[in-house]
Design a protein that fits this description.
This protein is of the alpha/beta class. It is built from eleven helices and 15 strands. Helix 10 packs across helix 11.
Length: 438
């Protein structure tokens, strides 16, 4: 895969970087909030402009010299983004004017020797950039309004000029979208960094460190992935800030747009009711599921056995009996060699399709062994015909002899028999009931 040119958005907090990121991507991928610190990790998106593909990196607000326990690591994330970028878009606030932090960032960028385009944001209308920003000494200066989209096209023309042009491949298969979900502080960001082999996300013992859903594309054994690290999902009563509410929404959206969800559990703290709530979101979304028990490097010291903990997981998450369980340590890397192959297998199964003949022969056998039970009434019910009508997740339509639904226990019986016959490990199944019209 040809590497795409990378463009990084850099600036002090609350200058509108995430708004610009969302504007260029054409979707609300990054949290925008009126207070500094809403973005802490590097957020990646592959997008294009006028047929040229590139990778855009959103970063947290750059406050040099801060001793804040969260903003300090966020500065490191910005510096990593600068190092790997081909072009830096240095965003400043045209309404607030030139501030000392802007001048300090400008000096840092000049030391890095990167190609820099100065972006004066929040200037609606033909006002031009305030002359005071000329003191920063950058040749390329553009006035824009990220909120309204003014000037963004000209900015992208300038940013991409001189960079290797990579045409958008319309036929290339999309990457496998993989969402990391779980309670706060179960190790999702550490797991992301281990999978990527880079410090892509801020890791901190402080719950709530991750607020954005951070997209990170990568490739492994010839397969493309888009890895999404989400904010820890917490109960509503624990969400004290508006941005935390938005984080929960982002995490749920990440599950909705994923192909496979890695439901991360914590071997140290054990199982919680919220683990089942989060796993239920993945089930409702119809995505593939792999259960990941993290921090397993501490198992021996805690007297935990794999068989015992796996049974606890099965008891706690009965509705995910079909999901594979993998025991890993994001700290040591133990068990991670099996994780991505398992994800790939789940996605392949999720998109697989059986033959109509095989399905109907199976239905004939299982209904003969155990007659269909209606959800109401005593009139006998027969399954006349079955067919697979969809994938991702595998979806089956069953035609009945009259207008009635099947009892939920009988649907579970059918689902179990279909799984035994055709596999489908790691993916939910959907059964749709139809009836013969008279």
């Amino acid at each position: 895969m040809i590497p795409l040119p990378r463009i990084a958005l850099v600036g002090r907090p609350n200058v509108g970087k995430s708004t610009l990121f969302n504007r260029i991507c054409g979707q609300r991928k990054a949290i925008t909030d009126g207070r500094p610190g809403s973005t802490r990790d590097r957020n990646y998106a592959q997008t294009s402009w006028q047929g040229a593909a590139f990778e855009l990196i959103d970063t947290g607000g750059l406050l040099l010299g801060t001793d804040d326990p969260l903003l300090g690591p966020a500065v490191e994330q910005v510096q990593r983004a600068i190092a790997e970028a081909d072009v830096v878009l240095f965003v400043v606030d045209g309404r607030a004017g030139l501030l000392p932090d802007d001048e300090e960032i400008a000096r840092e960028l000049r030391r890095e020797g990167k190609q820099v385009v100065l972006v004066v944001n929040k200037l609606e209308g033909p006002s031009g950039e305030p002359s005071e920003f000329a003191r920063l000494g950058f040749e390329s200066v553009f006035s824009i309004s990220a909120e309204h989209g003014q000037g963004v096209g000209d900015l992208l023309d300038a940013a991409l000029e001189g960079l290797p042009r990579t045409e958008v491949d319309e036929e290339e298969a999309p990457p496998l979208r993989l969402a990391l979900v779980g309670r706060p502080n179960v190790g999702k960001s550490s797991l992301l960094n281990r999978l990527l082999g880079a410090e892509r996300a801020v890791v901190s013992p402080i719950p709530g460190t991750t607020r954005d859903s951070v997209d990170s594309p990568f490739e492994h054994d010839g397969r493309r992935y888009l890895l999404v690290d989400t904010a820890g999902i917490r109960r509503v009563r624990l969400l004290k800030e508006n941005v935390d509410h938005v984080s929960v929404v982002q995490a749920r959206r990440a599950i909705q747009r994923a192909d496979v969800a890695l439901v991360v559990l914590d071997a140290e703290s054990g199982l919680r009711d919220m683990d089942a709530t989060i796993a239920g979101k993945a089930l409702d979304a119809g995505v593939g599921v792999v259960i990941v028990v993290n921090k397993w490097d501490t198992a021996r010291a805690r007297g935990l056995s794999r068989a015992g903990f796996e049974q606890d997981v099965r008891d706690h998450l009965k509705f995910l009996a079909w999901a594979p369980i993998r025991f890993v340590s994001a700290t040591t890397g133990r068990g991670l060699d099996r994780l991505l192959p398992t994800v790939g297998e789940v996605e392949d199964v999720r998109r697989s399709r059986g033959t109509t003949g095989e399905l109907n022969r199976l239905l004939a056998r299982v209904t003969e062994a155990h007659s269909p039970k209606p959800d109401r009434g005593g009139r006998p019910v027969r399954i006349l015909f079955g067919s697979q009508i969809g994938t991702a997740p595998p979806t089956f339509a069953l035609s009945l002899n009259h207008d009635v639904d099947l009892h939920f226990s009988y649907k579970r019986y059918l689902e179990n028999r279909i799984r035994e016959a055709f596999g489908f490990e790691g993916t939910p199944l959907k059964l749709k009931i139809r009836h013969r019209k008279h």
